Amino acid sequence: MSSKLLVILNPWAGRGTAGRRRPELEATLRQYGAEYAILTTHARGGAVELAWQGIERGYDRIIAVGGDGTINEVVNGIKQAEARLGNRVQLGIIPLGTGSDFIKVLDGFEANDIVGGVRRAVGNRTRTIDLGCVHVDEEEPRYFINALGMGFDAQAAAESLKLTRLKGLAVYLVAIIRALANYKAHPMTVEYDGSRIHRRLLFASIANGRCQGGGFWLTPEAQIDDGLLDLCLVDNMRLDQIIRNIPRVMEGTHGSLKQVTMARARTITASCPATMPVATDGEVVSTAARQVTVETFPDAIEVLVG
C-alpha cells in the first residue's frame, strides 16, 4: 500500500477557517517532507466518498482536516471501505472545526494546530480506539467517533448549522437559546445493558468522547478505549432550571443533579412515540427518528497520535 497521505479538507469547517488556512497546511506538509494528495469536500457527505475512493486507490492514511463532522464522515468512509475491501486504514486529524470536541480526549492535541496535526500525520504512533454505531429506524447504520445526541441537544446541533456568522462557543450558546424555543420534550424509553428507564427526557446523550457542543462536558469520565459508551440522560426541566445548570454542564459537574442519570453500556436502544432529532458528532442525521439502536465497536479504528 502507498505511504502517501490522503488529506481531506473541508474548506467550510470552522466557519471557513479551514479553507483560508489551506496554503499554511500545504506549506507545513511540504516542510515535513510529506508525500500527499489533498482533496476538498464540496457537499455534505462528500468526505465519506473521498475517503472510500482514496482507500480503493491504495491510501492507508486518511487525514481529516476540519471539525468533528468532517472527522465523522472520514471515519464512515474508512469503515465502509474496510468492510468491503478488508484494508486496515489509519486516521489522522488536523482539527480546524468550530468546536473540535473529540480531540479534547486526546493528549497533546490542540484545536487549530496545523503543525502538530501534520507532525502526527507523518509519524508512526497510533492509538486504537472504539467507535459507536447507530441505527436510526430503517436507515443505514452510521459510525460516530465522539457522541450521539437525541432530543434537545440534537435540536441545538440543528440550530447551530444555521448560525453562519458566529464562531466558537457563541455558536452553541445561541443555538441552545433557539432550541429552547423550538423543542418539546416527549416521553422516551431508553434501555441499556439490562436497565430501562421510561420518562420525559430533555435529551439522551451517548458518548465515546467527553465533550460536546463546543465546550459542554456531558460525559466527563468517558474513555475512548474501554469498550463502552457513556450515557447522560437528562429529565425534562423548566427553562430557569436549564439556564441555571448550563455552567455545571460546562464544568462537567452536572452528574450529581437529581434530574441526571449517568451510566455506561455496550448496547443502547431508545424509542419515542413522537419524532425526535438525532445528531452524531454534531451533524444532524435525522429530524424524525422513533427507534434508535446504538452499539459499541471496540478497537475499531487506529488514530495517528505521533
Task: Sum up the structure in keywords.
306 residues; alpha+beta; Rossmann fold; Tumour Suppressor Smad4; 2 domains; 13-stranded mixed beta sheet
Description:
By secondary structure, the protein is an alpha+beta fold. It folds into two domains: 2-124, Rossmann fold (3-Layer(aba) Sandwich); 134-298, Tumour Suppressor Smad4. It is built from eight helices and 13 strands. It has helices at 17-20, 22-31, 46-56, 68-85, 114-122, 152-160, 169-182, 239-251, and strands at 2-9, 36-40, 59-66, 90-95, 126-136, 142-144, 147-151, 187-192, 195-207, 229-235, 260-265, 267-280, 283-304. Strands 1, 2, 3, 4, 5, 6, 7, 8, 9, 10, 11, 12 and 13 form a 13-stranded mixed β-sheet that branches. β3, α4 (68-85) and β4 form a beta-alpha-beta unit.
- Rg computed from alpha carbons, rounded to a whole number of angstroms: 19 Å
CATH topology of the largest domain: Tumour Suppressor Smad4
CATH architecture group name of the largest domain: Sandwich
Query: Cα distance, first to last residue?
Result: 20 Å
Number of individual domains: 2
Q: Describe the biggest sheet?
A: 13 strands, mixed
What percent of the residues sit in helical stretches (DSSP H or I)? 25-40%
